[in-house]
Amino acid sequence: MEKFLADFNQSFIAGDRWLLYLKGVGITLEVAAVALILGVILGVIVAVIRTIHDQQHPGRQNAVLGILNGIAKVYTTVIRGTPLMVQLLIMYFVIFSNTRNAVGVAMLTFGINSGAYVAEIIRGGIMSVDGGQMEAARSLGLPYMPSMRFVVIPQAVKNILPALGNELIALLKDTSLVTVIGVRDLTKAAQLIQGKTYQALFPFVGIAIVYLVLVMIIAALIGVLERRMRASDRR
Amino acid sequence: MIDVKDLHKSFEEKEVLCGITEHIDQGEKVVIIGPSGSGKSTFLRCLNMLETPTSGEILFKGVSMTDPATDINKMRQKMGMVFQHFNLFNNLNIMDNMTLAPVQLKLKSKAEAERDALDLLRRVNLEDKAEAYPSQLSGGQKQRIAIVRSLAMHPEVMLFDEPTSALDPEMVGEVLDVMKKLAEQGMTMVVVTHEMGFAREVGSRILFMDGGQITEQGTPSEIFDHPRMPRTKDFLSKVL
What we know:
The complex is a heterodimer.
Chain A: H1 2-13, H2 17-55, H3 63-81, H4 84-95, H5 102-128, H6 131-139, H7 144-174, H8 186-197, H9 201-229
Helix pairs in contact in A: 2-3, 2-5, 2-8, 3-5, 4-5, 5-7, 6-7, 7-9, 8-9
Chain B: E1 2-11, E2 14-24, E3 29-33, H1 40-47, E4 55-60, E5 63-64, H2 72-76, E6 79-82, H3 94-104, H4 110-123, H5 139-151, E7 157-161, H6 169-184, E8 188-192, H7 196-202, E9 205-210, E10 213-218, H8 220-225, H9 230-239
Parallel strand pairs in B: 3-8, 3-9, 6-7, 7-8
Antiparallel strand pairs in B: 1-2, 1-4, 4-5, 9-10
């Protein structure tokens, strides 16, 4: 029991080590939040490009849209087809080899990565909305983009919220990969403390619990959001 | 008001409309009847370009709908459309359903649009549903709201695509009543329907479509009491 307490003390309290974890959680959340925003923006753009392209009248293809659609397809293929860790290494050591701003590179990489998955989720969501909704909006004289924005996308978002929640949870956990480019996130904090104290149990189980709690909080928040969005369903 | 010239429409290889030429005057109530698959709905949907015709021309008040240079959104503001499945915006309450287009298109201020919407809702006895969502309404209520949602744009012609086909029988009457009132007020209407009673009572002209063409047309009494074509007789004997 005494050893237990001593180990605990050494892992979390001595030398104000809990501060290291706290800073780590901060970085982890920051990377995840910025990446999420970036991912959703990218995802919506890619999904809309691909949907507009697919909904064109046959024989009236727009050349610019064709090129954009091609780029969007290559983007999703490459991002989904290569490991996230490899993308991170390429971004930091090849493309942005001149910068030491590892956190920034991490945010960008995770955002770009997440965008590819979010795009497919949103595209599925848009396709799940009854075509009559778009037709009704257009028949009133609303142009395509406002129809999407006010009628189709809100309904698509409601349909895809669970999938989007999964993506956010995966994103949050995947941020632990940033340790490979030296970002001092939560996982790195545990590794540093293990290196210094030779304690493994408390740091690693400790951060596992922190990740778990974070995920549970996110899941609960998404649940609240889902219930609120169901306001327009039959009650 | 609407001029259709040699309209063709094909889906993939299948030709659904095989050369339709027709003229619709202001104030007319044109009712289109015919067997399923005869192209009635496709014809109606071509009128406001929800379907892009393969060839031919459609003029609305002298402006070509089929010309790619025409601002189709502007044209559609003047052509209301009511769908078989209502297509109320599920994410918006009734008030927002009715004010979305007029406000977004900057035709009315929000306050103006809401006042107009309430007036319209009162006309169909649904003013107490302004805050409700579509999923809380019956089919008949939804369709009546879909009609006044179109009217909020002050259209000059109303297109009805089988407006009562998806309704429970007991709700058909309330929707037809709204349409009759609209007809009495002089609205130009083009209606695809299987309600022969409505067609006879309200229609000023009946078009019978078969195989992508208008094969016979005339006044209700000409079509219902003295049909000339065997196909028309055959169809009417089955539905009357």
